[in-house]
Specification:
Keywords: Magnesium, Metal-binding, Signal
CATH superfamily of the largest domain: Ribonuclease E inhibitor RraA/RraA-like
GO molecular function: metal ion binding
Low-confidence stretches: 3-20
Cofactor: Mg(2+)
Number of strands: 13
Mean pLDDT: 93
Protein name: RraA family protein
Number of helices: 12
Helix content: 25-40%
Shape: elongated
Radius of gyration: 23 Å
InterPro entries: RraA/RraA-like, RraA/RraA-like_sf
Structural class: alpha/beta
């Protein structure tokens, strides 16, 4: 009886001491992390990048996005070497992050206390907590530190829940189970390290919407992600619009170069180096005659971008 009373007192003290902290980052903290974003935000503080921009991002090549970010000084935003449920598909979305660690019973108890304070379901597994707060267009990105055995973050049940909430998929530096069931979820996709039949038993959730590491990349809540068969790249929200537009212009330059090479107007050496003034003038005239309906951006966006490049 005394033991139970003692444990109860300890539990109450822990609950009181962590009332100012939580499993999920506060909106204020997320706003500090993403201070350079000037647009709308979700209630949790994450930047609300438009659905239209997410669609345009699907047409951007990983190399183009990588090159843009490197020029801006963001050198640690790419990760490759994935297993992919549907390699032929492209996924973009707004990142919701989760951090996992090896299981430690005393810390796990503290996490449950904090989750209870946040009105989360403490009966089931805490790996459902990030899933419960996903919104349409989100991508669930989790640092599982590469663990596979006894560290599978989802199976088909949670996979269905993820898709129902986000209409999107996952990126896990870790394992999954029941790949056959996950493949049956129409529209769902996943980038993960490997699969295993074991359950999540020796791994625990420690935080939601905090900065995490995915392989060689750093990921913040509210980043955009572009994921395809060539890897994943995580884009700071405040750079997303310019990155997409810049990459679209690079795509138009490539299209112009390929066409002029096919027409044998220029040599490969002329195209595959810094363009001369006559080639640049030819490109600008080519752009002027490009059908508006076929442009990946609006004509206004294109003209403003090209004028800015002249300055």
């Amino acid at each position: 009886m005394r033991t139970k009373l003692f444990l109860g007192i300890i539990f109450m003290l822990i609950a009181g001491s962590v009332s100012a902290q939580g499993v999920a980052a506060s909106p204020e903290y997320i706003k500090q992390l993403t201070l350079k974003w000037e647009g709308e935000r979700f209630d949790d503080g994450r930047p609300h990048v438009s659905d239209a921009l997410l669609e345009r991002l699907k047409n951007i090549q990983i190399e183009e996005a990588w090159g843009y970010l490197r020029r801006k000084g963001y050198n640690n935003q790419y990760e490759g070497d994935w297993k992919i449920l549907h390699p032929e598909s492209i996924m973009t979305g707004r990142v919701l992050t989760a951090q996992y660690t090896p299981l430690r019973p005393d810390y796990q108890q503290l996490v449950k206390v904090m989750g209870g304070n946040e009105k989360r379901d403490t009966i089931g597994g805490s790996n459902s907590w990030p899933i419960e707060i996903l919104k349409p267009g989100d991508v669930y990105v989790a640092d599982g530190y590469g663990r596979i055995i006894d560290g599978t973050l989802i199976g088909s049940n949670l996979g269905n829940a993820i898709y129902n909430n986000s209409q999107n998929g996952v990126i896990f530096d870790g394992g999954v189970r029941d790949v056959a069931g996950l493949l049956d979820i129409e529209g769902f996709n996943g980038w993960y390290r490997d699969d295993d039949p074991s359950y999540l038993t020796e791994q625990m959730l420690t935080s939601i919407n905090t900065p995490i590491r995915i392989g060689r990349a750093i990921v913040l809540p509210g980043d955009l992600v572009l994921a395809n068969q060539h890897g994943t790249i995580f884009i700071p929200s405040h750079l997303a619009a310019e990155l997409v537009l810049s990459s679209e212009v690079v795509g138009l330059r490539d299209q112009f170069g390929f066409q002029r090479l096919k027409e044998k107007i220029y040599t490969p050496g002329q195209i595959d180096t810094k363009w001369t003034d006559p080639i640049n003038a030819d490109f600008l005239m080519w752009l002027k005659n490009y059908p508006d309906k076929d442009l990946p951006m609006t004509r206004k966006e294109l003209n403003e971008y090209m004028n800015k490049k002249k300055d």
